[in-house]
Design goal:
The chain has one domain. 5% of the residues lie in helices and 40% in strands. The chain contains two helices and 15 strands. Strands 1, 2, 3, 6, 9, 10, 11, 14 and 15 form a nine-stranded antiparallel sheet that branches. The longest helix is centred in the middle third of the chain and has 8 residues.
Length: 254
């Protein structure tokens, strides 16, 4: 009589199901932390106090903007359909809707690049709403908690990491202030072809198992036509500044 296959050992001829073939059957639980980083006119991160980390975020919506090419239809004079060449859609980018709660001049400065308002001591206390700044922009990263296999075998928590490396044309949209909770909404458009590369931050584990985890930049840069990256990481998200001040963008290593 054949013996029972030990738990955790796959029988001969076993075919992995969808979950095993990918990585795991993770579900996205909720948005955890967001980091916005100012980029220059070429989409390159600007070193220095040019970033902001926040937990007070309601949602991030990324709606694809696609140019749907026309189909070419070959139809005979008698009406017979001879063939069809389907048009290939082109991803123009993502229309971003970023909803957040903080009345933070620092965050708004990074997101919109609008003129800053300073107090008598030179501290940033506000911002002006002027012409929309279409040059430059910001990169948006966010981390989401996972439900399912949310920890590795060595006990490291796993997160969904999402990066939009270049967002431009951003401005504060509809804003109502009354007797209810106030939400700021920022809208903008993603762009491809920037110079984010692998990024200035340590966001993934670059070690090779079974070595101890080592945080480092992304292992591969985004392609020239890419607008977004989504991947699983075990590197914890950044911690917001307790004084709601700017975060520092590291100088990229040559």
């Amino acid at each position: 009589m054949l013996g029972r296959v030990p738990r955790g050992v796959k029988p001969l001829g076993h075919r992995p199901n969808t979950c095993e073939a990918i990585i795991s059957c993770d579900l996205i639980a909720n948005l955890d932390v967001v980091r916005a980083t100012r980029v220059d006119n070429c989409g390159l991160p600007i070193p220095g106090e040019n970033a902001f980390v926040s937990e007070c975020v309601a949602s991030v919506a990324m709606n694809p903007n696609v140019d749907v090419a026309d189909d070419v239809i070959y139809r005979a004079a008698n009406g017979t359909l001879c063939g069809v060449k389907r048009g290939c859609p082109t991803l123009l980018g993502y229309d971003l809707e970023f909803n957040f709660f903080q009345v933070s001049p620092q965050l708004t400065s990074v997101l919109t690049n609008q003129p800053e308002v300073l107090d008598a001591g030179g501290e940033l206390v506000g911002f002006d709403d002027c012409a929309i700044q279409c040059a430059g922009g910001f990169a948006l990263e966010f981390w989401a908690e996972l439900v399912g296999q949310n920890c590795t075998e060595t006990g490291q928590q796993r997160y969904l990491y999402v990066l939009l490396p270049w967002i431009s044309n951003a401005y504060i949209s509809d804003l109502s202030i009354g007797n209810e909770a106030v939400t700021f909404q920022l809208v903008g458009n993603s762009k491809a072809g920037g110079q984010w590369g692998v990024g200035p931050y340590d966001v993934v584990d670059v070690s090779v198992p079974p070595a101890a985890p080592v945080a480092g930049p992304m292992l591969t840069p985004l392609g020239d036509t890419c607008h977004r990256r989504m991947q699983i990481t075990t590197i914890a998200p950044p911690v917001p500044d307790p004084l709601c001040d700017f975060a520092t963008v590291p100088t990229p290593t040559p």
